[in-house]
Design goal:
- This protein has no helices and 6 strands.
- The chain has a single domain, classed as Jelly Rolls (Sandwich).
- The radius of gyration is 14 Å and the shape is globular.
- The N and C termini lie far apart (32 Å).
- Helix content is 0%, strand content 49%.
- The relative contact order is 0.35.
- It has 102 residues and is mostly beta strands.
- Strands 1, 2, 3, 4, 5 and 6 form a 6-stranded antiparallel β-sheet that branches.
């Protein structure tokens, strides 16, 4: 799992907070972000299993100190590890990210 977002991406949307009982079913089975869209999974409380499904399967335990980075178009899913609160923040590149001259 990569741990840093590219320098040219900025946050543009955030989900509500989910708990172990409110996680949408779609997040618990294989899904992807769109081309060019990165996501950062932020655990507020508890722990969440983040599974990268391709190209090589990986499993990561996400905690408040260990967020999860989702790369564009990479199939993944999550599963609660007991009580958990988390949200997902979506990021995308902008042509003029931080540069007023472009």
């Amino acid at each position: 799992m990569k741990t840093q977002l590219p320098a040219n991406v900025l946050p543009y949307r955030r989900t509500p907070e989910f708990t172990e009982s409110t996680i949408p079913a779609a997040l618990q089975r294989g899904h992807t972000t769109k081309t060019g869209v990165w996501a950062m999974i932020h655990v507020v409380e508890g722990a969440l299993e983040y599974r990268i499904l391709e190209p090589v399967e990986e499993r990561h335990r996400l905690t408040p100190d260990q967020p999860g980075l989702v790369e564009p178009t990479v199939p993944h899913e999550v599963a609660p590890l007991g009580r958990v609160r988390f949200y997902v923040e979506f990021h995308a590149a902008t042509r003029d990210a931080g540069d007023p001259h472009h």
